[in-house]
């Protein structure tokens, strides 16, 4: 349909008032009389038929007859669906409009391309395919019938629940249609979004057919509705359900550089086809055939995981490609650990996902942002990478190498602080070169400790502290003392779950050091600070890590414990606080010294040339062009550049400073200019290529408009699914920044998964300065929002003069059991709960979070990506302090306005789609501009309901389609002004 015709049709729909509506060819009866005369109230179809009449979905024939047996035409079925579809806003009596609209959504309809088939009767099998498409599944008829059974839309004609029992070839009648539609309505409001492309059964693999589902294979099957109902399931139906609903690999091809990673997400059911509760967590063993690193979060310091846990039905892991010089297809294998009866089909079964690793030359971009007004929360991707694993200790006796056994004590007699190795011996049993089994002390002078986990009484300590204690135990105190040391120190040797050697110092603290404390943690804090930490005047940056680890131990204490230590050991705690303050001053001075002259703020961009296999080229003699915020610089690769990670002298970086900051997301581009002929073959694939990298600068909060005495509880989701959405834990720093900005006294912080865990309660400035606040832990990954809120509500003070609020940050995957009581308690105590959901509005449990906020006079915010958290928290800050609800003003940012943008090229059409954030109610239209050197092409996308905008123009409308590289999506307000844009790369 042309745009002019469509516009005329819409105008007519708005202007005409239809006085007569034909009930599929029948005359409407008087509205006052809607009793059905030809269906008994005892008839199984009566309730459904009455529902269709009462809601004006269908009309009665003369004599109040429903005429259940009257066959239904395709357009009539489509009309019924349109009446139920909350996304459809046009006339349901206009056949052309119906087919134009739903044809664009790829609903399987014969009448889209052949108008004569619009009046043809529709079969029951055809209806099954329609229903699947309504729910976004492209299924063939057999799988679609199975899908009807799974969703309890049909029970079959005799209860056997097979394909034939559904009678798919029989034409559907009004009675069938009423029952089907009534059951669909019972499952919630209908909002049809359709398929991404022309239906062809592409989702058949998502539906597993039970054994003998098709009776022509000489068998029938009965599907149990509850676990264990059929005791013969295991023997007669070993594949009763395919428990894996979906496997999604975010990026199936990675660069084999030891850095590039992808997220794998697996959605599961139990062995009876039932959904898994979000407060349940299942353990899986995970392995990589190619030796890739598997971890729960996507940071360079995240360790290797061999066991991962689900968040209810969802299993999420990050896979980081190994550094390779040839292409490899990897198999990531997941196997449930000790499956219970409920998961019997998982026993000895392996779930597999494939990832390909390809060695490529790279221009690798990293960056740092320096903002003097918020130095605690500057952004950047520059980090030291994964700490290398130290060699596990072993000694040599004659010609026999003897590995040190784990879980035993090594006696250390010396250490080299430059090489970071110890000399130590351990009693071992071993077989000599001539085959004799013997025992004895085995000595090694090469026990590496620089990258090991170092501990004192189970508490992680720094390398410097470890060396000070070794020196103290071996040589004695540096000052004059009657005690000259023991000549040795003892460490318990173990290996942690990532294969890292761990050395825990033994027998260091005497009874005198520990007897005054109920907690060993208290004793360690006081011992280390008193005996080894220098006074503030003598603290240097060499002590930075040591001060941080002791402070982290102190920060883990509850407020009561902190108060006790401050009371009983005021001088020692004061010494620790003085050292912390001195380190802050030294770091500020270091930043000032390193800052380029004349730049009070900057974005620093670092470019490295990386050879296939992940090795940085350190002697490249060439230049690179770097573009940021409209400015371009050409810089050389410096073969003498100090390592931007730790200053140890790594070479091969091109570094450029830009004297500005773009808050939020921005792009940096780099391309090689002058080439080094020695590396011509290596960089061949990078010639004439521009590489882009997204960077992010943490936005600043506005000055507070109001002030109020408040008590605020931050409740932060640390479930598995949330970690997948915030793999780098951006939320932790943003919450600290928010606590400082609100200034609530007290401020509380809880993290939660299946249960809440208290992080801190104190004055805002103290809580916001806790370095370890909200760090990710290796713990259960399931989710229980209600339990977390229940605990938070119960831990507010009884102070009646403070405004009380909870800030809940979550991806919304949770059950709602017990919610009503929690909301009653919150309202009784006057606690407003502000909720922030992370993820597309189509995937989060928006209803749950909206109910929580609306019932407690809080606000609800939705953000698509975690980087947009700033806008939501800024709105909540203003709401709490001014006691007036404020919505997220980040809808002025294009990346926040659009939840999703997509351009898909099909055989003869181009599908253009935009999903707008439901919270951005100032968006009234979407325009798309295809940018090309040969001329731009523009379209205004029609609204499809539920904040979706979509259009499917013909492919021939785009001359030289391959020239289009970028597409600009523009959000338009009511006056036609552009309020935000987003660039979509083709």
From TrEMBL:
SUPFAM superfamilies documented for this protein: Invasin/intimin cell-adhesion fragments, vWA-like
Protein's name according to its UniProt entry: Uncharacterized protein containing a von Willebrand factor type A domain
Matches recorded under Pfam families: VWA (PF00092)
UniProt keyword terms in alphabetical order: Signal
InterPro entries according to UniProt: ECM_Assembly_Org, Ig-like_fold, Invasin/intimin_cell_adhesion, VWF_A, vWFA_dom_sf
PANTHER family xrefs: COLLAGEN ALPHA, VWFA DOMAIN-CONTAINING PROTEIN
Signal sequence bounds: 1-26
Domain VWFA, first and last residues per copy: 711-880
Top-level taxonomic group: Bacteria
